[in-house]
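Module 6 notes. Inverse folding takes a fixed backbone as the condition and produces residue identities as the prediction. Think of it as a translation problem where the source language is geometry and the target language is the twenty amino acids. Below is one complete input and output pair. Work through it position by position during the lab.
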């Protein structure tokens, strides 16, 4: 890979390009993922997932809605939910990043064809949407609570920002988005409609389009939307105004709350606004909300949102594993927020959070073939789910196995756009040098703010192996520093430069001053499997342990029980994994890449007197004094699998948190 030439700054082919901040992002032309799990994900995304999504958008008529807008048949013929346009835009964004990753004439043709259909549906004043405002349809902006009109246009803006940065600002999609953004500014400006959209997204879309096109009006409109929210302009609904974060102004909120995707998208937009306007109060507020949500409202997987009913964050510590909603999109949103805070402030905790969410939620959603997806990501599956046929549309989070498509299909294209732009999250630069945040085989050909260049080749089997080798290909003329992240999960780590002394380092950032061209920096992380225990406040998993190996959270899947001597899969008094207990006095260990724990089946009636464990009748509570101590079960070596790999071997029960003996 050669050093990129030409533009930088706002035109950098990267999802977030702030004009200022602690760290500067790199573009897809500066970082290329060359191997390992993330490269495989990108390959499947490019060769299977994009076409899969396109097929379903066509089949379900969500693309056809744009054609109906032209032919005049929307009022009678429109298909899909009110936000279906946004899935088309997210696919376009994914395609735009993919085109930025590597030229592809076929993909380019498909991209252009979809853009042409979208463009044809745009109204003369710039409005773009298929659900409102046409003859026979409800008037525009008459249902800001649920209509998703600004939300959809926000995704159009993000797609256009991606295309502007990968294909240039002359692209038709960029022109369409510009007209749409001008319409939004004219309609919702300081003297216009004072409303906000029930689903945040237009804020982050306007901010990024404004950055990509150098258009301050779009940033100003994003700021207006951020400031307007929280003053009760949206209707009070059954979930309360907190559902759409209209209960308290963004700068006054103490924690991310309400619908978890909306909360994260809003926070991302608020960081963009804060950075561009120098509003440190707003930035402090969002950083604090992020930190508290991480500390008290996030699953061990990085997943967020424990309410099924309103897809929302629970109160602090409400993190039940078997009722985890943990929507894939909420973690895409959390990566968006964490990345923006990392660029603004540089904190290593943000890169840790990105790794956690990408590895254990975003990567969990798609099947290995990239053609079926989890919408919700439970941490405990008590009943084997039913296989979903590959031609069936599932309801939102109804499918407890991966499903090809959903009536609300936000997650698949969200995964696609994230995977296509994954290289952007690997490294950054600042005046001092290069910071490596995520570990994957990669080629980095970065330009420092000074214009000097640094070339690095990352060679590693991460996360299977904790050894990361950074080969220095080119360095700037003066002093420079390579900064490496030692993740919080790595209890110890060692750094060695060339044949020099080995330095022991702890979690955090490690500065390696001035590696020379031809040199090698080796980071050894401790990926040995280990037990993780929950904060005692998380009552739902008290007395349980999870197992983590490197960044990967592991789980027990019922299909592995029979081979481990714990009876047929689905057998045992409770069936499946529910009555398996772990001997926490024996640390997890690894043989040939497989992690094991010492575990057995809890005896019948071990918890309470007449518990109903054996025959499904009785009463599961007993007088404490009557409870006999549980007999010690026969223990076996039981293998675990990476949580992101679960349910790839057919229906199964599964749990991340394992009760201890
Ligand atoms: Zn979703």
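Target side of the pair, the amino acids:
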């Amino acid at each position: 890979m050669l050093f990129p030439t030409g533009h930088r700054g706002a035109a950098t082919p990267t999802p977030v390009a702030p004009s200022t901040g602690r760290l500067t992002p790199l573009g897809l032309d500066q970082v290329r993922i060359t191997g390992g799990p993330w490269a495989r994900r990108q390959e499947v995304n490019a060769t299977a997932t994009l076409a899969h999504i396109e097929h379903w958008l066509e089949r379900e008529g969500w693309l056809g809605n744009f054609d109906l807008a032209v032919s005049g048949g929307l009022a009678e013929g429109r298909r899909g939910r009110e936000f279906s346009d946004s899935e088309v835009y997210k696919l376009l964004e994914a395609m735009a990043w993919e085109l930025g990753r590597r030229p592809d004439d076929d993909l380019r043709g498909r991209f252009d064809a979809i853009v042409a259909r979208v463009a044809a549906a745009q109204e003369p004043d710039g409005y773009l949407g298929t659900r409102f405002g046409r003859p026979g349809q409800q008037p525009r902006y008459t249902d800001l609570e649920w209509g998703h009109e600004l939300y959809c246009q926000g995704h159009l803006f993000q797609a256009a920002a991606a295309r502007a940065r990968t294909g240039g600002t002359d692209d038709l999609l960029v022109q369409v988005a510009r007209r749409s953004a001008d319409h939004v500014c004219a309609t919702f400006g300081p003297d216009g409609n004072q409303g906000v959209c029930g689903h945040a997204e237009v804020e982050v879309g306007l901010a990024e389009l404004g950055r990509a096109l150098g258009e301050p009006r779009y940033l100003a409109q994003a700021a207006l939307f951020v400031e307007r929210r929280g003053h009760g302009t949206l209707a009070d609904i059954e979930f309360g105004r907190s559902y759409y974060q209209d209960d308290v102004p963004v700068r006054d909120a103490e924690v991310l709350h309400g619908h978890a995707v909306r909360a994260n998208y809003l926070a991302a937009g608020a960081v963009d606004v804060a950075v561009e306007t120098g509003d440190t109060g707003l930035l402090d507020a969002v950083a604090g909300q992020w930190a508290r949500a991480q500390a008290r409202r996030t699953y061990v997987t990085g997943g967020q949102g424990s309410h099924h009913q309103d897809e929302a964050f629970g109160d602090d510590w409400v993190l039940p594993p078997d009722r985890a909603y943990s929507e894939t999109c909420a973690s895409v949103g959390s990566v968006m927020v964490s990345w923006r805070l990392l660029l603004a402030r540089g904190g290593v905790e943000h890169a840790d959070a990105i790794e956690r969410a990408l590895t254990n939620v975003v990567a969990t959603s798609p099947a290995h073939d990239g053609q079926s997806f989890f919408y919700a990501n439970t941490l405990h599956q008590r009943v084997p789910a039913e296989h979903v046929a590959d031609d069936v549309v599932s309801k939102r989070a109804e499918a407890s196995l991966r499903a090809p498509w959903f009536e609300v299909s936000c997650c698949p294209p969200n995964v696609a756009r994230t995977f296509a732009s994954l290289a952007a999250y690997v490294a950054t630069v600042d005046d001092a040098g290069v910071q490596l945040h995520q570990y994957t085989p990669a080629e980095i050909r970065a330009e420092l703010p000074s214009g000097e260049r640094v070339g690095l080749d990352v060679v590693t089997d991460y996360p299977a192996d904790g050894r990361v080798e950074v080969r220095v290909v080119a360095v700037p003329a003066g002093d420079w520093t390579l900064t490496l992240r030692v993740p919080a999960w790595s209890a110890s780590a060692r750094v060695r430069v060339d044949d020099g002394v080995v330095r022991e380092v702890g979690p955090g950032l490690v500065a390696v001053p001035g590696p020379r061209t031809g040199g090698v920096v080796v980071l050894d992380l401790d990926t040995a499997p280990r037990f993780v225990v929950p904060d005692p406040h998380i009552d739902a998993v008290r007395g349980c342990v999870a197992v983590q190996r490197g960044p990967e959270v592991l789980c027990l899947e019922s299909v592995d029980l029979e081979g481990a001597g714990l009876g047929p899969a689905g057998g045992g008094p409770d069936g499946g994994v529910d009555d398996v207990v772990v001997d926490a006095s024996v640390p997890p260990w690894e043989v040939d890449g497989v992690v094991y724990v010492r575990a057995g089946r809890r005896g019948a009636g071990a918890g309470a007197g007449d518990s109903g464990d054996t025959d499904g009748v009785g009463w599961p509570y007993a007088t404490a004094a009557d409870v006999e101590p549980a007999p010690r079960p026969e223990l076996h070596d039981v293998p675990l699998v990476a949580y992101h790999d679960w349910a790839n071997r057919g229906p199964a029960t599964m749990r991340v948190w394992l009760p201890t003996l």
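Reference fact for the lab report: The mean pLDDT is 94.
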